[in-house]
Design a protein that fits this description.
Blueprint: H1 24-27, H2 37-53, H3 56-65, H4 73-84, H5 90-98, H6 115-128, H7 133-145, H8 149-162, H9 167-180, H10 184-191, H11 198-211, H12 218-227, H13 231-248, H14 251-261, H15 267-280, H16 295-304, H17 308-321, H18 327-339, H19 343-356, H20 361-373, H21 377-390, H22 396-413, H23 416-432, H24 436-452, H25 462-469, H26 476-495
């Protein structure tokens, strides 16, 4: 069976798209209007001193003061001066390079979406533009998409040195750290810039929430939200603060932040608002689903409406937008295989997911399951063996799903009794985990395999099966699996007068929380 998508507590982790697909407001740095009055006065003094003296010392002091992301012509002049002056330290020159706008970058040529070709094109571009921070981030993204995290890390590090306070660089570096499971570095890097840039602040709040740490200097960040007037600039920060408030104080205090975030949201905020509407009853405007690149929200909305084909298409678009993200690979593959029986699409999701997450046990299981359903038993066993080798002792849910998939393989190999034992073990494990959805879908796969070889359904009669999986106690997804996979087999048995009773001891299917 396919690994079930995990229920998550969603946060406002920034997207990492190609530069050409990233909205302009997410690429620019913080504006001077977000400076505190005290800093404005100090900054003006340093700027006037630079304009009067035009030496390395005054230029360096202005650059360090501007390192929070503020843009002015005087800062660019000072940066050019430092770069062009002989004898200046390499560290100061890197700081100066970070104060200059990135070299304009054209899109890589379309080459059949092959990441390896994109890597070659981006490496060639860097030969011509070695200090283009955005180009380094683009190359890092391409490397991550094919699982080359060490190479990606090298280019992320270079981008940070070239543009240490660039909004886009900081946010994509943070997304890279989330992908690697190492958010502490980004939290530290974001803390100084966050009180002055709402986009960076949103990322810091989300990462602190994700890691379970408190946000340092939260008061200046809340004040930043209040004094940011552009609703586009403040949307993601408001949603991140609301999500944090939701955990600490509940929906009543968080709701005001969500109302602010809904005025002019980007697609990441749209996805957050949709998740909040399903889990906490926050109002959601369905027109937001029409926003460009709102693929995640459209995938969830389509799945809720049982529009499985649209949900799969949205997951593919979501995965194309963020090819290293694991959630669209899981959710798209699950819907394709379990809801639609489209195992070629499920194979595509698994392959794409494993390209950037090569050691993920769940994706290995999903690939093995789809290969079995496509009658490639040899390759499926290879992937199952890899997954079992990586399985740790405390991953009980993953172990239960792997047992079911191995049970399927055993059925298709003709080892019926051992196969049935595997499915029974999965069902018992799911009951122990109090995972109703896993239990019911695993049982339906068990039923299907028994019916496929001419046996009666296990444990329940055909009438009992039909009554339960068309009733109120059945899981929503399990009902779809029953209608697609098991019910036609039961109808065929009834048509030909086969016995409808099951075998074995009764097994509770609906798991009630204790």
């Amino acid at each position: 069976m396919h690994e079930l998508p995990k229920d998550i507590r969603r946060r406002l982790i920034p997207r990492w798209r190609r530069v050409k697909d990233t909205p302009n407001e997410e690429l620019t740095s913080a504006k001077p209007s977000v400076m505190s009055s005290e800093f404005q006065s100090e900054f003006k003094e340093l700027k006037d001193e630079w304009l009067a003296r035009k030496d390395v010392l005054s230029a360096s002091e202005l650059l360090y003061a501007a390192a929070l992301g503020y843009e002015e012509e005087a800062v660019r002049q000072a940066a050019h001066f430092v770069i062009e002056t002989p004898g200046v330290s390499a560290g100061l020159k890197r700081l100066a390079m970070g104060r200059l706008p990135p070299v304009p970058q054209s899109s890589p040529p379309p080459v059949d979406h092959k990441q390896t070709f994109e890597i070659r094109a981006l490496k060639s571009k860097l030969v011509e533009q070695p200090r283009n921070a955005h180009a380094h981030i683009e190359l890092a993204r391409a490397y991550v998409s094919v699982g080359l995290n060490d190479k990606a890390k090298h280019h992320v590090r270079i981008a940070i040195e070239l543009a240490p306070v660039n909004r886009f660089v900081l946010r994509t570096a943070a997304r890279f750290d989330v992908h690697r499971g190492r958010v502490a570095r980004s939290i530290k890097a974001l803390e100084n810039v966050a009180p002055h840039d709402p986009w960076v602040a949103a990322t810091l709040v989300a990462l602190a929430d994700l890691s379970g740490t408190s946000v340092k200097r939260i008061k200046p960040i809340r004040e930043l939200l209040d004094r940011t007037t552009n609703p586009v600039e403040k949307s993601e920060l408001a949603a991140a603060l609301g999500t944090l408030e939701l955990k600490d104080a509940g929906i009543r205090k968080a709701r005001k932040y969500f109302q602010v975030s809904a005025v002019s949201p980007n697609e990441n905020v749209v996805a957050q608002l949709f998740w909040l509407s399903k889990n906490f009853g926050v109002n959601f405007d369905q027109k937001l689903l029409e926003r460009s690149e709102a693929f995640e929200a459209r995938a969830q909305s389509s799945a809720d409406a049982n529009d499985w084909t649209s949900a799969v298409e949205a997951c593919f678009r979501w995965l194309e937008n963020e090819p290293f993200a694991i959630r669209p690979a899981f959710e798209g593959g699950y819907i394709a295989s379990e809801m639609l029986g489209d195992f070629k699409a499920a194979l595509e999701f698994a392959h794409r997911g494993l390209a950037s997450n090569p050691k993920d046990i769940g994706l290995m299981n999903n690939l093995a399951f789809a290969l079995i359903m496509e009658d490639d038993l040899i390759k499926s066993k290879e992937w199952l063996d890899r997954a079992k080798h990586l399985l740790a002792g405390d991953h009980e849910r993953e172990r239960a799903v792997l047992q079911a998939t191995e049970g399927l393989l055993l059925y298709r190999q003709g080892n019926v009794f051992e196969a049935a034992e595997h499915y029974t073990s999965t069902i018992k494990a799911a009951r122990g985990l109090k995972n109703e959805k896993l239990l019911q879908i695993a049982y339906l796969h068990f039923c299907y395999e028994e019916l496929r070889i001419g046996h009666a359904p296990p444990f329940w009669s055909s009438d009992e099966l039909t009554k339960f999986f068309t009733g109120d106690d059945a899981n929503k997804d399990a009902k779809v699996v029953f209608q697609r996979m098991v019910l036609p087999m039961l109808v065929a048995r009834q048509k030909y007068g086969l016995i409808g009773a099951g075998y074995g001891a009764p097994l509770p299917i609906w798991v009630r929380p204790t």
